Amino acid sequence: MRRQISIHLTLLLTVLAVGTLVAAINTSADAERRRDRGVRTEIVGGSDVPDGVFPFAAAIGTVGGSGGIGRVYCGGSLIAPSYVLTAAHCVHGEAPGEVAVVVGQTELGTNQGVQRGVTAIAIHPGHNSRTGLNDLAVLTLAQPVDGIAPVTLVGFNDGSFDSAGTWLKIVGWGDTRLGKSTAFSPRLQQRDLAVVDDSTCAREWRKQTGRKYIVASETLCTTGKSHGTGDSGGPIFTSAAGANIQVSLTSTAFGGDSKRKIANYGPQLSSPGIRSFITSIAGV
To answer: How many domains does the chain have?
Structure first.
C-alpha cells in the first residue's frame, strides 16, 4: 500500500511539474504575444517601393543586441528630424529604451538609412484602447535624422483628403499573404486605398465591433483588401502635386477579408485635437 501511495505521489508530482512547466511556457508565449501585440505588417497585393522613394517611412522594433534595431513590429513616419509618428498601441507600456527606429531603409537589414534610439514616448492623452480613438503617439529620437525629408502632415481642419473615394497610399514591410504563410517582405511595399464615407464607416464599425459609436471627425476610414491587423503606425498619405502629405495612419483593422468594406479606422490627423497634440510635441 505504501508503495502504491509512493508511486501515485510520484506521478502526481510529475504531472504538477509538467503542468508548471507548460504554464510557464504558455505564460512566456503570452508575454511574447503581448509584446508583439498581434502586430504583423501586411501589405497585401502591393508592389515594391524603389529605393529612396518614401524615405520618411520608419520601421519600429526592439533594440538589438548591438544597440541597433532588432525585430521590427510596427511602422511609423518621420514628421520632423527628431520625431516619429506611430500608433499608440505600438508603444503602449514600452519604455523608451526598449524601442528602436530605422528611417530611410527601403530594404530591411541593409545599410540604408539611419537607426536611432528613442528617449521619450508621448501617447495622445485621449487614446482609448477599447474604442481605438486617438491611436497615435510621437517618439522623440535620441539624435536628429539629417538628410531625410520628413513627410508633410495635413493641416488643421484641412478636409481636402477626407472625401469618400479619395485615393491615398499605404506603405509597410511584412506578410504579403495575410497570414496564410510566413511571407514577410524585407522590401517596403506600397498599395493604393480609398477613403470611405462617414456613414459607411460608422455602420461597418458597429457591425464589426458591436460598438455603437465612432467619432467621424476624429476617424478616417479606408477601404479593405489591402492590409489586415498589421502595419500598425505606418503612414497613410497622398503623393498628389509632388508632395507627400500624411492624413492618417494604420490603427484599428479587421483582417483582410475581401467581404469587408473597410480595412482601417485611423486617426484623422487634420482633427484639431489630434493635430494640436502632434504640434505640442514635435512643433510641426
So the answer is: 2
pTM > 0.85: no
Distance (Å, whole) CA 193 – CA 143 = 34
Cell numbers given for 85: 509618428
Per-residue pLDDT of the chain (284 residues; tens, 9 = 90+): 444 434 343 433 333 333 333 333 222 222 233 344 433 334 555 667 788 899 999 999 999 877 678 888 889 999 999 999 999 999 999 999 999 999 999 988 888 999 999 999 999 999 998 888 899 999 999 999 999 999 999 999 999 999 999 999 998 875 555 555 445 667 888 888 899 999 888 888 888 777 777 888 899 999 866 554 447 899 999 987 778 999 999 887 654 444 567 778 899 999 999 999 999 999 99
Question: Which residue is catalytic, options 77, 135, 231, 271?
Answer: 135
Active site annotation includes 89: yes
Among residues 77, 82, 89, 185, which one is catalytic? 89
250 and 169 belong to one structural domain: yes
**Which residues, at least 6 apart from 47, have a Cβ–Cβ distance to it below 8 Å?**
189, 190, 191
Q: Is 227 one of the annotated active-site residues of the chain?
A: no
The range of the structural domain enclosing residue 200 comes to: 152-271
**What residue type is assigned to position 273 of the chain?**
G
